[in-house]
């Protein structure tokens, strides 16, 4: 099996390199409005944002920042297939502007924007990120009533384009081979992910400003979402590509991908990570198999049996739908003019 992975340097408010209805899944984490590290980016897109911040008008700045994101959401509506899924990782912001402290609810604004475009909201996911400090933000110290809760979670908002689900031919191999294990389904499709934590990205050979603005989410998040909401042969789009975490996850999951990024300096960072992908894909796949076998052992110790055997792996499975599950690993990567071509094989246990 082969996949392609395009990387486009450009503005996601105009995805001219992506055809209409050519993408099955979007997985992305945009810059969060009213988080100071992205003030300059938003101001470059619309100087009125900088003017509003300087004038102490936080609400006007918030609205103008989301107006810039809205242009990207318009493009996602165009490029997604009917029934395609968009997964948007976003956090709310807390900030003092002109002496007033408040929360800016980014997740609510993104939710409203997608509904306005005819997307159907699906149940979302909360995942907890590590706090920046062991000390909580107190506001008024140890006395009520003016303390504030510390934000330690982010949202994965999930939307479906149109009112109907995607359809497949009966018994489609690309769908059944992309199955997940029963116990993975139970963990992944929970609305709170307690086993995923934020991570700091190590960016070599880039300037301090680029490093500060990388803010990539953990690999586990796009990898799970890609496995949950796409099949083999699908194309995954990340319009806020950054250091390419979504593309790495797509490679390991055996899907095609497109990444769009304003700054070409991030491509150099990604080039440094490519050599690690074959080993990473094997590690990820084998970890899934090891966790499944541990689950099988626990279930058998509890006196519960299995009715089915996996076709491609020496292990029992709970449901008939898991029988055809085939994990992929990366065997070879070839650089091309607009990205990479990847050859995949069937993952073999150690």
TrEMBL record:
GO terms for biological process: DNA restriction-modification system; methylation. Pfam families: N6_N4_Mtase (PF01555). One of its GO terms (molecular function) is DNA binding. The keyword Transferase applies. Its EC number is 2.1.1.113. The keyword Repressor does not apply. Residues 23-269 form the DNA methylase N-4/N-6 domain. It catalyses: a 2'-deoxycytidine in DNA + S-adenosyl-L-methionine = an N(4)-methyl-2'-deoxycytidine in DNA + S-adenosyl-L-homocysteine + H(+). It comes from the Archaea. Keywords: DNA-binding, Methyltransferase, Restriction system, S-adenosyl-L-methionine, Transferase. InterPro entries: DNA_methylase_N4/N6, MeTrfase_CN4_CS, RM_Methyltransferase, SAM-dependent_MTases_sf. Belongs to the N(4)/N(6)-methyltransferase family. N(4) subfamily. This is Type II methyltransferase. The lineage of its organism: Archaea, Methanobacteriati, Methanobacteriota, Stenosarchaea group, Halobacteria.
């Amino acid at each position: 099996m082969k996949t392609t992975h395009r990387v486009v340097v450009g503005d996601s408010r105009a995805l001219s390199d992506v055809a209409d209805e050519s993408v099955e899944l979007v997985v992305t984490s945009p810059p969060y409005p009213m988080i100071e590290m992205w003030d300059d980016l938003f101001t470059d897109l619309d100087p009125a944002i900088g003017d509003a911040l300087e004038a102490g008008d936080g609400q006007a700045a918030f609205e103008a920042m989301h107006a810039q994101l809205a242009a990207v959401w318009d493009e996602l509506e165009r490029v997604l297939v009917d029934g395609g899924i968009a997964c948007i990782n976003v956090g709310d912001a807390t900030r003092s502007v002109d002496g007033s402290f408040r929360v800016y609810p980014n997740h609510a604004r993104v939710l409203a924007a997608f509904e306005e475009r005819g997307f159907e909201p699906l149940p979302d996911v909360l995942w907890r990120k590590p706090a920046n400090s062991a000390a909580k933000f107190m506001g008024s110290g140890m006395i009520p009533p003016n303390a504030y809760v510390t934000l330690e979670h982010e949202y994965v908002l999930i939307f479906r384009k149109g009112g109907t689900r995607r359809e497949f031919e009966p018994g489609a191999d690309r769908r059944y081979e992309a199955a997940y294990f029963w116990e993975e389904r139970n963990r992944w499709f929970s609305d709170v992910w307690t086993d995923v934590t934020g991570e700091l990205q190590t960016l070599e050979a880039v300037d301090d400003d680029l490093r500060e603005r990388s803010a990539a989410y953990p690999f586990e998040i796009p990898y799970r979402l890609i496995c949950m909401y796409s099949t083999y042969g699908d194309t995954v789009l990340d319009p806020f590509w950054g250091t390419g975490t979504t593309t790495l996850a797509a490679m390991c999951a055996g899907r095609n991908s497109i990444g769009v990024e304003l700054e070409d300096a991030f491509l150099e960072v990604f080039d440094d990570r490519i050599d690690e992908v074959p080993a990473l894909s094997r590690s990820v796949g084998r970890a899934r198999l090891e966790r499944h076998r541990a689950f099988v052992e626990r279930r058998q110790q509890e006196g519960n049996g299995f009715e089915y055997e996996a076709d491609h792996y020496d292990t029992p499975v709970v449901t008939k739908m898991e029988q055809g599950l085939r994990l992929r690993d990366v065997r070879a990567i070839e650089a091309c003019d607009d990205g990479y071509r990847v050859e995949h094989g069937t993952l073999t246990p150690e």
